[in-house]
UniProtKB/TrEMBL annotation:
Family label: In the C-terminal section; belongs to the class-I pyridoxal-phosphate-dependent aminotransferase family.
InterPro entries: Aminotransferase_I/II_large (IPR004839), HTH_trans_reg/aminotransferase (IPR051446), PyrdxlP-dep_Trfase (IPR015424), PyrdxlP-dep_Trfase_major (IPR015421), PyrdxlP-dep_Trfase_small (IPR015422), Tscrpt_reg_HTH_GntR (IPR000524), WH-like_DNA-bd_sf (IPR036388), WH_DNA-bd_sf (IPR036390)
PROSITE patterns with a match to the protein in the record: HTH_GNTR
Protein name (database record): GntR family transcriptional regulator
KW Transcription (keyword) present: yes
Length: 484
């Protein structure tokens, strides 16, 4: 294979070993290693154009023979995704896209992100917020907890929705991802266990791993969370944290039953394990807007409950405002841990969020209508064009977790890439390469884009396994490592 690569990124043995995680599953070592590397490349966790460590080094780090590595690398070369660059060793890269015939396809379509369009009234509220800026300019500008009036408004919304909350229970963050990472970095020590549901939201898993934690998987059932399994795992694995997405779980869109919430709160209280509840997508109820109840509204039974949320999926992902709701002492710990990585939120963003929060009920009704149109269109088109796929019924959220009926998710990702569609393979939502039988299809794009994108996915699926499935005429963005 010929390809031009300038200045490949180098991946050290240590980083590669961490990315590989548990790659042995009892089969032939070279085949399993090659497959894991292929998945890491396709789902973007290894950037295209990355130089792998020398065979001898990686063999020593993984405790396998050099022949195993040579055979794994040979397999990847045969698949056209590893090649040698003189003086640079072996480079792992997605197949190059060829220059010819690049007029045949219209714009590239990004199905790797489930982000709704910005709320159209945002400029009005931004203008109102700026009127309050002069009074703020007399202060130093840094506040690790966040603007008092925004904390008050967020607390008031929790209270109105059934979870009595005071502003001291709220810390403003730079979105929900920052909130998750801050909780992880503050509460977790090296090798602590965190129970996560699989499939799950990839960047939360990344945050726990970066804090040094080990992940313990609790698989979702076809109906959603397996509360009994979670309860048993809390008892047996003695984790330091359990991470949940109770409403409109990303990627499956499932919701946790009320009885299971109570059950998990009781288990948390018995075992002393805090529950980290991610409500970033909780208010995206399409069929009954405004009716989801915060987890914190259920009787706590003395459990330690930490809720995170943000305005990313309701208002706009570009407004980097999120929050943590927790016991006041924990909130103080989170604030104290902040300066190692950030010095608080922008005052202007916080003023905007303060203006917008009272509008949430109206905004959520508009969102529900908009997301409902996208969902219904995507579901009916997928069922028409791809009748063999399992397309679920979801009542909220941003995406469909579709069953392909065969372990071909990463093959579909490559084939779609050749047709100008970037999409994330199912494996990105799991641990150690699971979920090759699924793909997440967001329904947040405008209708014409959804129509075109799903049409291209159908063409890409028809070509999977044929000579036409590989490098495309015009590649979409090379990697879908960043998934929201
Ligand atoms: C479940 C979940 N949690 C957290 C986030 C991160 O959200 P934010 O943009 O507020 O950081 C996302 C974004 O996709 C998400 O889906």
């Amino acid at each position: 294979m010929t390809a031009t690569v300038q200045a490949p990124f180098a991946l050290g043995t240590h980083a590669l070993t961490a990315l590989l995680g548990e790659w042995r599953h009892g089969g032939r070592a070279h085949a399993e290693l090659a497959e894991k590397l292929r998945l890491l490349l396709i789902d973007g966790r290894i950037r295209s154009g990355t130089r792998l460590p020398a065979e001898r080094e990686i063999a020593a780090a993984l405790g396998v023979s050099r022949t195993t590595i040579v055979s794994a690398y040979r397999r990847l070369r045969e698949r056209g995704i590893l090649y040698s660059v003189q003086g640079s060793g072996s480079v792992l890269a997605l197949p190059p896209t060829s220059a010819h015939d690049d007029t045949a396809l219209p714009l590239e379509i990004d199905f790797s992100k489930g982000t709704p369009p910005a709320w159209t009234e945002l400029p009005t509220f931004a203008a109102r917020a700026l009127q309050h800026l002069p009074e703020r300019m007399a202060t130093g500008g840094i506040d690790l907890f966040g603007l008092p009036e925004l904390r008050e408004r967020i607390a008031a919304r929790f209270t109105e929705r059934g979870a009595p909350t005071s502003p001291e229970n709220i810390l403003i963050t730079l979105g929900a991802q920052h909130a998750i990472a801050l909780v992880a970095r503050t509460l977790l020590g090296r090798a602590d266990r965190v129970v996560v549901e699989t499939p799950g939201y990839p960047h939360a898993l990344d945050a726990f791993l970066s804090a040094g934690a080990r992940l313990v998987a609790s698989p979702l059932t076809p109906r959603g969370t397996d509360a009994r399994h979670l309860e048993d795992t809390m008892r047996d694995a003695r984790p330091s944290l359990v991470y949940l997405m109770p409403d409109f779980h990303n990627p499956t869109g499932s919701s946790l039953a009320d009885a299971d919430r109570e059950r998990l709160l009781r288990a948390s209280s018995r075992t002393g394990t805090p529950l980290l509840v991610d409500e970033t997508t909780a208010e995206l109820d399409i069929d009954r807007p405004g009716t989801t109840t915060p987890f914190a509204a259920f009787p706590s039974h003395g459990a330690s409950l930490i809720t995170v949320g943000s305005v990313s999926k309701t208002v706009w992902s570009g407004l980097r405002i999120g929050w943590i709701r927790a016991d006041r002492h924990l909130i103080e710990r989170f604030a104290l841990a902040r300066p190692a990585a950030d010095m608080g939120n922008s005052v202007v963003d916080q003023l905007m969020a303060t203006e917008i929060l009272p509008e949430m009920p109206r905004l959520l009704r508009q969102r529900a209508a908009q997301l409902g149109v996208g969902r219904d269109h995507a579901v009916s088109l997928l069922r028409e064009l791809l009748p063999a796929w399992e397309v679920p019924d979801v009542h909220g959220g941003l995406a469909l977790w579709v069953g392909l009926g065969a372990p071909l998710s990463s093959a579909l990702v490559l084939s779609a890439r050749g047709r100008g569609v970037t999409i994330t393979s199912g494996s990105r939502f799991g641990i150690d390469g699971a979920f090759e039988r699924n793909i997440r299809i967001p329904f947040t794009a405008p209708i014409p884009t959804l129509t075109e994108g799903i049409g291209r996915l159908a063409a890409a699926w028809a070509a999977v396994g044929t000579a036409d499935a590989g490098p495309g005429r015009r590649g979409a963005a090379a990697e879908a490592a960043f998934v929201v």
